[in-house]
Amino acid sequence: MSKPAEPVKSTPWSDPTARPYVQIERVTKSFGDFKAVDDVSLNIYQGEIFCLLGASGCGKTTLLRMLGGFETPSSGRILIDGEDMTGVPPYERPVNMMFQSYALFPHMTVEQNVAFGLKQDRVPKTQIAERVATMLDLVKLGGFAKRKPHQLSGGQKQRVALARSLVKRPKLLLLDEPLGALDKKLREHTQFELIGLQDKLGVTFLVVTHDQEEAMTLASRIGVMDHGEIVQAGTPLEIYEFPSSKFVADFVGTVNIFEGKLIEDEPEHVRIGSDELGGTIFISHGISAAPEAMVWAAIRPEKIFMSTAPPPGTDNVVRGAVQDIAYLGDLSIYLVKLPTGKVVRVTQPNTSRHAEAITWEQQVYLSWDSSSPVVVTR
Amino acid sequence: MIRPGHLRKVGVSGRGLVVALPYLWLLLFFVVPFVIVLKISFSDIDLAIPPYKPLIEWIGKNSLAIKVNFNNYAFLFTDPLYIHAFLNSIKVAFISTLLCLIIGYPMAYGIARSTASTRNVLLLLVVLPFWTSLLLRVYAWIGLLKANGVINNVLIWFGVIHEPLTMLYTPFAMYVGIVYSYLPFLILPLYANLEKMDWQLLEAAEDLGCRPWQAFYKITLPLSRNGILAGSMLVFIPAVGEFVIPALLGGPNALMIGRVLWDEFFSNRAWPVASAVAILLLILLVPFMMWYQSVQARESAGAR
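Output (structure tokens, whole complex):
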């Protein structure tokens, strides 16, 4: 059986000779009986923005704190630039962290906050002033040097925190929900600024977030975490288009999942019978699954076509009635109820201003390309 | 029957009453006694009951004489005893405050960083001594510190010393008493301040290269400044005028202004001089009280 087609890679993580910059080797962290991080191994390469994505309590923050030195792994080890970090306290690590709460020192000005780490390293005074000024200009806070944190807006505080953690030129920057406290518009804007800044400085970023959109925008690669484990690591495209499990497919983006069984298993195609769908799903490539095993076909809402007239062909077509419509402006979300009772989510871009709209209760045909469904076995 | 409507007609509102109550309290129990003491401090001593001459007197039929006597104040500055007692009181209060701070800061810090359940127990233990009278607790220290007291007996029994140490009626005993009695006044405001502290700031400091003690010195200490000041004032201000503890535990050399005041008032029956001492003591402490108030105001405003 052949594997599904995968996107072309020209990236260090697909190059076996590339030396990883951060190596997490079989790291476990237990709190009593509870394993917050469970046997995680991960390589991060220089210049990457790696996002740990997961719901709260999945262990992503614990993993981040172990990299920062605030928690000690129960077992396993962490190497940064080839150096074993076991037993190295936070103040001696070549790592800086941007805290979710920003943790700006309230009794110091913006300038003093940013200069704090450099002073600690006994950098000469003239150099400190220069580096702080450059960094503040870089985060567009040049005019705010003398302000105290309580005189700043949320977005400005975020920049100070970023400047403070970057000014020491760490080998690895840890960002804990860096944009979590910003409102939506500002968040989108800041995402792109963050990428620009990372590009300019070449610092390796490790970002923890629960926001999949944030992860998709920022990341060179995403590691999806669940119950202390990294369930899948890959580029945003791989994670979205080639999820390895129901959990990943469902966690990243929205998806329609149909439970079914393999009824035809050929090297070049498979056919899945699904009672939930009330029909069969034809997939134009082979998959690796045991015969008669339970499988799940995951189809993204934007990959389903909806029409009032029956589409040609009999494969991958199903009939249903529109149950609900959400008009979002750029696109509309339709909830279509199949005769089996299953509700399918379909999104359609609103490409025309005067399109003949599909309305409530209308009978529609749903169809999809035979390459669209992703089959997962767990 | 008085209904709110009736009161409003004469210009008394509920809010006005609520605001007026504390002022009434201050008037009755602070301003009036203060004016009386001030009045006595400007009068002449007299062998009578009360033992001073009136300040305002009718002489003849139609003339009122006001006789203000500054001698009592002048006397305080000519006799070195009073200056000495004032300076000594400030010294004792200052050292006691410092000792309270050294002992109390780690305690307040420990309480603030403990888990919620332990914290309540520890706070209760700090407040618990208040359930017994101060006098009783100071007397208990006599039992502990005297020549054949608990401490000496235990030390002799263990063979640490062979002769009992002289602790009672020494400055040492006085400091023990003051620090012991006033420690909670320092711990509680300091705890209230440290409890609000964002401990993540310490992680941030360590992340930026601080060792834990450096993080404490550069972050925790400056951020708890208001708590330190408030607690210190709560120890310093009453300790300056402290009378009971030096009298019971300190030796005859423990010349504190509170004791001088007592002696003038009860032994010498020199009410005018005693009143002058009291007024000077108050004037001395007013700047500290005002400082304390401004610290409190800053603390509750949340600006650091």
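Confidence is low (pLDDT under 50) at residues 1-9 of chain A.
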